[in-house]
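Q: I'm writing up a methods section and want to include an example of the input and output format. Could you take the sequence below and give the corresponding predicted structure tokens, formatted cleanly so I can copy it straight into the document?
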Amino acid sequence: RCLIVLATVATVLLTSMALYYLLTPRVPSSPPAPSSSLRLIVLVESIPEGLEFNSSTTHPSIFQAWLNLMDEAQSSIDIASFYWTLTNEDTGTHEPTAIQGETILKTLAELSGKLSIRIAVNSPQESQRLDLRLLNDSGADIRAVNMRELTSGILHTKFWVVDKKHIYIGSANMDWRSLTQVKELGTVVYNCSCLATDLGKIFEAYWFLGGGQTIPSPWPPSFSTLYNKDTPLQLPLNDTPSQVYLSSSPPSFCATGRTQDLQSILSVMDDAQSFIYIAVMNYLPTMEFTHPRRYWADIDTQLRQVAYEKQVKVRLLISCWASTQPVMLTFLKSLASVYNPKSQLDIQVRLFVVPANPKQKEIPFTRVNHNKYMVTDKIAYIGTSNWSGDYFVRTAGSALVVNQTASQSPAPTVQSQLKAVFERDWNSAYSTPLTQHMDLKYLLEI
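A: Here is the clean output for your methods example:
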């Protein structure tokens, strides 16, 4: 009888403890240090000097993220990049804010004599060789990928793979301006060897082609992947159940199993049920660099289709700066005309202008929102490509796709964080609604 009573009491106590644990609110712990074993995904941004938001939405800087990755590195750093100008030697502006880029270059050079540093870069112009020469002299291995010969495109990718364990992917080039004078967004994933190994396969393709090889068809099995839009990698990120995969372009660079970047974008749009928010520098339904001119409407048609058939709310935040092509506004006005609340058609376009003082205007190729991401009610897509046809047909780019809709965690998902970034920018003083009579001259003067 005593045993029965004790067993009953124990059961009641265990049940009470379980209910207390399930019902008591718990405050999320602070983010763990990168050196912890938790798989951690972090949004990172570069906010240009002088750009200030009246918002609590903030994220660590890309500069700090790159420093963290180098600090974590134990054996190897692989970087795929468009170009290298981490000092302002190429601009001749003697700009003090170049110090962050110079710090990254100096640290990488110091590590080049201690770790394996490999860099796959688009065939550089002479003015961009100084950084690479320094790194090569310090012990880094560098291969230039002749994209013009391979695909008539460029290597536009921007990512890091560290120790086959940590990754960075996003819009920032290896350029000092990307850290202090250009608005950028990316993400870092720590302690995720499966994802880092998969991104490493994309790097190995660049490395292979940088050795003077032609594009194989098919690619050898060592370049293939199991993870794509149909069979994503399932794992916890920030202690939250996640479905993740990496996409790549151009199609000729995609080994067996790899989702092409364009198919990734179209799939994310097709899965959306409520909204699609897009922030990219360039949006053109054309082959932007092809002659004679060619219309290319894959993404544009998909947006119109989901807005009409599924009544999905579409928002595009597109950059406007000195290098914006006037024809882009013409196409955007056409897309923005698909707005009729009575018919439940809701596509809206805003233009984002990064302000510049006279001194900042002297620095070439700056003061622009260089973001390349999309967020829906289900998915966060963080890429490296502008949105015109050439980037998906001929140019080397990549993207990380994350779905955390199954999350029951009180911690914010990557999707909700990216949505907050978009809404901060959309509602900011730097965002202007596109009207049918608006022109570039007006926009750049306001």
